[in-house]
């Protein structure tokens, strides 16, 4: 960036670019709707570098541990109570690690850009200067999908750099008035089947006649059949989750109270500029459900007549505010144990939510075997293991958000995902005969640029509907995954499957390293797209010769055994929950 460059931080700002203005530099690939941006015209993903990614993980982990303690004191002062760290971490921990990661990513963007000379940026005009949302899912929706919200985050950081770090960008004379742009909010019930919704209604009706204390309640984390079967075998009715823990029931009537927020801020020692920035902002950015609307929602969950010795959750402890507040209250009584069952197959060594789950639970049951537990993966209890047909080649792709989200050991932006390159390889190297059977199964399709890349490389008949993978899996001769999450395990336990990943992404837990080496040796895990496609071309007509080879079977069996995905009976879980 030797010449004067105009920096663009969001897709909204692209509207103000003049046609003859060639000196444009994007803060990231995500800041533009254009697919064919040259990499000299945008800042590469901050965490594409192994060194930067690992340093950020250690840095953010320390900040999380420090600020969960700071916020515990702050919440106690604000609400005039003396609850412990676990209580408040249960409620706000997920928001805090998301907030720290997303703000720090944008902080590093400004650090890199501010080190350059001759920079011009838009002059913003915001009605308010805070990142306050109603709840944690609203914050996540805004930071990953909203142009305006992201511009506000960048502006707050730029403002700090100008005031305290001698950053001197050239500001446009004309100010831009930002309005809340339309973006699709996250619907937490989006992939619930009609069957699940029907069962929830039945459970709600049955809940009216069930008043005795249960041995356990399964909030989520098990499939419908297993949930029903385990409860009935324990001589109790399934828990009516949606009756009590529905985000739409949460109360958000009170307004932002800046005076009370400021009144309860205590002075904290800071060790770097990022902490100084946090101290000037975080108390104003906390969602209202943790402050102004907390007591209203606390009183609501106190009215619930739920009694259980054990509480099991797969995902509700992430973003369901009523459940988290109720759960925090139970932690004070010491007569209810909280158990987390892993909701998916992610087995990465490094986790973007840091120690949140271990800190708030009495037991954290992951799919990976350990000395502490050896229970079958709850998702697969009583589910079939074989596919019906063997016709298609199905590709399952990891979808990034429109804007970078929290730290993860996998791509957080499209340029890091390299989806265009990935799909072009398949179009160029895959045999023509196989191409006719080649389909992509996206999960969300909430990123417009992600959609554009897929549509540019594939015919519309090759693009399946969102959340269609479980159905399409039955018709797959071979499944290709670009990530080792739940879909990879879904596919691997039912038939021929391969995984294509980068060496520096999705790094598995240490206990699984030998399994990964065995999977690589038997052409199940690939670190090269070219080698993977060559394997597909050579084995397509006789897939069983490879898949039913004794060494392949052993590699798959060993891995699934380490992931507790071999046995799918409910007996072990029932014994564990009835203790």
User: Looking at the structure, what is the overall shape?
Assistant: globular
**Binned strand content:** 5-15%
Q: What is the rounded distance between the termini?
A: 65 Å
Tell me the structural class: alpha/beta
Biggest pleated-sheet summary: 5 strands, parallel
Strand order of the largest sheet: 10-9-11-12-13
- What's the rounded overall pLDDT mean? 91
Radius of gyration: 25 Å
Low-confidence stretches: none
Counted by DSSP, the helix tally is 24
Number of strands: 13
Binned, the helix content reads 40-55%
Describe the structure.
- The chain is an alpha/beta fold and 579 residues long.
- Among the domains are: 5-132 and 147-182 and 257-285, no CATH class; 392-562, Rossmann fold (3-Layer(aba) Sandwich), CATH 3.40.50.
- It has helices at 50-79, 85-114, 136-145, 147-164, 194-207, 224-233, 241-244, 258-263, 273-285, 294-302, 316-319, 321-333, 356-360, 414-417, 419-429, 432-435, 448-457, 469-473, 486-492, 513-521, 529-539, 543-547, 550-562, 571-578, and strands at residues 5-8, 24-26, 119-125, 170-177, 214-218, 308-313, 337-341, 363-365, 392-396, 438-441, 476-481, 497-500, 525-526.
- The strands form 3 sheets. A 5-stranded parallel beta sheet has the order 10-9-11-12-13. Strands 2-1-3-4 form a 4-stranded parallel beta sheet. It has a 4-stranded parallel beta sheet with strand order 5-6-7-8.
- Strand 11, helix 19 and strand 12 form a beta-alpha-beta unit.
- Helix 2 (85-114) crosses helix 4 (147-164).
- The relative contact order is 0.11.
């Amino acid at each position: 960036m030797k010449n004067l460059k105009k920096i663009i931080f969001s897709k909204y700002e692209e509207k103000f670019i003049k046609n003859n203005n060639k000196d444009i530099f994007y803060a990231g690939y995500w800041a533009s709707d254009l697919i064919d941006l040259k990499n000299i015209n945008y800042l590469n993903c901050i965490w594409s570098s192994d060194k930067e990614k690992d340093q950020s993980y250690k840095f953010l982990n320390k900040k999380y541990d420090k600020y969960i303690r700071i916020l515990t004191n702050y919440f106690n002062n604000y609400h005039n109570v003396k609850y412990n760290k676990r209580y408040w971490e249960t409620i706000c921990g997920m928001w805090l690690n998301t907030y720290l990661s997303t703000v720090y990513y944008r902080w590093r963007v400004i650090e890199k850009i501010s080190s350059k000379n001759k920079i011009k940026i838009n002059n913003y005009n915001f009605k308010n200067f805070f990142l306050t949302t109603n709840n944690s899912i609203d914050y996540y929706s805004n930071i990953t999908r909203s142009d305006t919200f992201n511009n506000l985050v960048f502006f707050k950081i730029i403002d700090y750099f100008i005031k305290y770090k001698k950053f001197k960008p050239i500001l446009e004379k004309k100010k831009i008035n930002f309005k809340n742009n339309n973006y699709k909010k996250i619907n937490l019930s989006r992939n619930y089947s009609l069957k699940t919704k029907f069962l929830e209604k039945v459970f709600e009706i049955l809940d009216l006649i069930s008043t005795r204390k249960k041995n356990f309640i399964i909030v989520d984390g098990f499939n419908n059949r297993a949930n029903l079967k385990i409860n009935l075998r324990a001589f109790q009715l399934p828990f009516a989750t949606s009756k009590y823990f529905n985000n739409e029931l949460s109360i958000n009537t009170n307004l932002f109270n800046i005076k009370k927020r400021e009144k309860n801020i205590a002075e904290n020692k800071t060790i770097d500029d990022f902490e100084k920035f946090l101290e000037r902002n975080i108390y104003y950015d906390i969602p209202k459900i943790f402050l102004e609307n907390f007591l209203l929602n606390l009183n609501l969950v106190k009215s619930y007549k739920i009694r259980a010795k054990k509480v099991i959750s797969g995902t509700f402890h992430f973003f369901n505010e009523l459940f988290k507040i109720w759960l925090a209250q139970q932690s004070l009584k010491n007569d209810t144990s909280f158990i987390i069952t892993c909701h998916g197959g992610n087995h990465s060594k490094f986790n973007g939510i840091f120690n949140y789950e271990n800190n708030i639970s009495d037991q954290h049951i992951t799919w990976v075997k350990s000395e502490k537990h050896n229970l079958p993966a709850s998702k697969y209890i009583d589910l079939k293991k074989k596919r019906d047909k063997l016709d298609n080649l199905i590709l399952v792709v990891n979808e990034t958000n429109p804007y970078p989200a929290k730290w993860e050991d996998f791509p957080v932006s499209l340029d890091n995902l390299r989806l265009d390159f990935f799909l072009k390889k398949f179009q160029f190297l895959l045999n023509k005969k196989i191409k006719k059977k080649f389909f992509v199964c996206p999960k969300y399709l909430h990123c417009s640029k992600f959609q554009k890349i897929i549509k540019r490389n594939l015919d519309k008949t090759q693009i399946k509907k969102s959340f269609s993978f479980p159905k399409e899996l039955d018709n797959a001769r071979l499944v290709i995954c670009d990530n080792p999450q739940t879909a990879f395990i879904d596919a691997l336990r039912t038939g021929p499957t391969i995984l294509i990943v980068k060496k520096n992404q999705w790094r598995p837990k240490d206990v699984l390293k030998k399994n990964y080496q065995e999977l690589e040796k038997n052409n199940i895990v690939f670190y090269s797209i070219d080698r993977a496609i060559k394997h597909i071309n050579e084995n397509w007509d006789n897939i069983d010769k490879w898949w039913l080879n004794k060494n392949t079977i052993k590699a798959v069996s060993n891995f699934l055994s380490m992931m507790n995905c071999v046995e799918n009976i409910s007996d072990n879980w029932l014994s564990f929950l009835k203790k």
